[in-house]
Amino acid sequence: MTEAQPVRVGLVGAGPWARGMHAPMLAAGPETELVGVWARRPEAARELAAAHGTEAYDDYAALLAHCEAVAFAVPPDVQATMAVEAARAGKALLLDKPIGLTLAEAAALTEAVDAAGVVSQLTLSNRYRPRVREFLTRAAAFDTYGAQARQLTGAFIAGDYAHGWRLEHGALHDIGPHALDLLDAAVGAIEQVTAAGDSRRYLTLTCRHAGGAVSQLALSGVVPRTGDGRYETFELFGPTGALSLDFAELSADTADDAERWATLRREFAAAVRAGRPADLDVHRGLYLQRLIDQAQRSL
After folding, report:
1. Pairing between strand 92-95 and 32-38?
2. Least crowded by CB within 10 Å, which of 13, 29, 95, 255?
3. CB within 8 Å of 209: residues ≥ 6 apart
4. Residues 232 and 175 occupy one common structural domain
């Protein structure tokens, strides 16, 4: 049996997420080959490309001509436009979350992917962690009455992510997709979500799930992790007690962290080579965008 050739991937973006995750992951192979980088700032594209032994492109169309898949590490509204162009060019898509800033952008991108018949996958990074997958397997067999979750971080106070669309739209758009995705996967399909608070400060969501379970979620990007607080947890409760996942423990597990990127790369390449949608594809992104939109409208 002939070994599959690595998927030739072009990277759009050269910011902190592209530098810290996308470029190293795609360049590590063997399932993928990073064949080029395009960014709004050509000097940033050249620097990132040089660090990984690949080409920098000044022209997006030229990048598309030299790859078979495109990974996006740009703001959601930029991704929504550029990914439509890539889909129409027949390229598979590795998309960041949220897939757009608005529900209309997300729907237009999904329509373009379906029309082009290309493979898409979301970088919902927690879903590729072995220990998160183990938690979700246990959750599937757990009789859940209700759940509580917290996703609290100080990332928007200072540093690489404390600017741009994250500050403007807050935790609902940036952290919300991760948290809602995990609650939906662990407890059941979310049928209704309502919000209270301020997405730029501290926001709470109440979700009603299929089967009658209720979950509550707290989100913030401006709470520094000091003291003894539990800042990033998912807890399910039912007649047999509780089932919990604590991301403080996960963050200390370097093997689990490394494996998630290898799993993401491997599963994306397999989907592209098979020509089949990934489990976490653009439709999952649209589903999460509808929940975000519903929560936002309830404020």
Report:
1. unpaired
2. 255
3. 183, 184, 187, 188, 189, 190, 191, 215
4. yes
| In-domain check, residue 161 | yes
Strands 69-72 and 92-95: parallel
77-134 pLDDT, tens digit per residue, is 999 999 999 999 999 999 999 999 999 999 999 999 999 999 999 999 999 999 999 9
Do 70 and 182 belong to one domain? no
Helices assigned H by DSSP within 151-253: 164-169, 171-174, 176-187, 247-251
CA-CA-CA-CA torsion for 84, 89, 92, 96, nearest 10 degrees? -30
Inter-axis angle of helices 76-88 and 103-116, nearest 10? 20
- Two structure tokens written together for 107: 């729907």
Q: Is the pTM of this model over 0.90?
A: yes
Residue 289 lies in a domain: no
How do residues 198-250 score in pLDDT, each as one tens digit? Answer: 999 999 999 999 999 999 999 999 999 887 778 999 999 999 999 999 998 88
Domain range spanning residue 231? Answer: 127-253
